[in-house]
Amino acid sequence: MQNLLEDKCFESLLSRAMLSHDLPNNPSRNLPRRSFIQLMTLTGILNGLTSRRAYSESSIGRPAPVINGIPYVSLQSWAAFNHMDLRSPKNGEKSADLTARWGRATFLIDSRSASINGVNIWLSHSVRDDGGRVLIAERDMRTVLQPILLPKPPARPRRIRTITLDAGHGGKDPGFMLGARSEKNYTLSLAQDLGEMLLAAGFRVILTRNSDTYPELEDRPSIARRAGSDLFISLHYNCAASSPDANGVEVYCSTPLGTSSTNGGGPKQLPEPSNRFDDQSILLAYEAQKSIVRTLQLNDRGVRRAGFVVLNKAPMPGILIEGGFMSNRDDARKIFDRSHRKQMARAIVDAVFAYKRHAERGLPPQ
Ligand SMILES: [Zn+2]
Prior knowledge:
This protein has 366 residues and is of the alpha+beta class.
């Protein structure tokens, strides 16, 4: 965990402070038996998604345990309710594995660190082992597991067309500095390369800045809103001057109400415009983290939550990518290499397409 007080980049930010509808109209008519069975299987999956009831401990007649004032639910019960398998820890094991229809999650006991399909995700509260019964905070079940492992098919498929890219810092605010090198220059270069790729892929692209200027933090999500953007992506590089070994990628989304930011602070009390899109934002964050760490083979520091102004005020799904540590020798060498930045831009484009498949067609994440 990085030390925020020595992280100029964070200081700067904080201080300014469906499925496919291709089915035939009458699916049971004139179909060969094998196709009919396949169709019934698909229909079962459809039903499992579209008619899913919200889970609560009371819905299966069990009391919700409360630990240190935090309501927990049984992961076994939640898994069974959603037709998933949970391999509980045995003989002092410190992890539990969950297998879903299109995914797998691993939880470390007494830890906030979890992974979904090999992508690290930070929970708000530690997972507990209550004598073989695995407990997860109800908030984490609702704001992390459900949106990623059981995303609701969009009621109205939303076309992903316009994307706002926010190059961190700029102008009077250099961000992190390493000698003569300023973070603001590399975030702008990444945003411009990413913008060109998204344009070439058919998206409409808005840049909050396209030169060495400093739009106020509140103005950046406003630019996205005025442009009718469907996604907001803020680009930064990280720094931990006192921990030169710290390295890797983090993707942030806005902190949901009632949960705490990954890097500390109490539970969020007041809603922000971003909170209407929490489920979509964590799905986008998951896709971005997955695509970047797999493609570029960078250290996976996990999907995280934070109350950054640019995320809080974005009235659309939004993420903030910290694409490596300028304070780490190996990461810095890559950050300063344009071909590496272009690889990262391509990985982000892939993540946008993965998210778009879900938002527009309801296909589950993988
Ligand atoms: Zn920054």
